[in-house]
Design a protein that fits this description.
Length: 55
């Protein structure tokens, strides 16, 4: 996945920002939400965040 790719359209959060949050220690969707704001509006990107956590 390209780091510049937008994962969360609602908050404009990129794959890179989520990757950085994971590298900084986020291990759950909730922690990603706290760190980046991604997944806190419509929730449509939560599945994709979950997938990134699993990889
Ligand atoms: S696309 Fe992420 S909360 Fe809506």
């Amino acid at each position: 996945m390209d780091r510049d790719e937008i994962v969360c359209n609602c908050m404009g959060v990129t794959a890179g920002e989520i990757q950085d949050a994971i590298e900084a220690g986020a291990r759950t969707v909730e922690e990603i939400q706290e760190a980046t704001g991604a997944g806190t509006v419509c929730g449509g990107c939560v599945g994709e965040i979950q997938q990134m956590l699993e990889e």
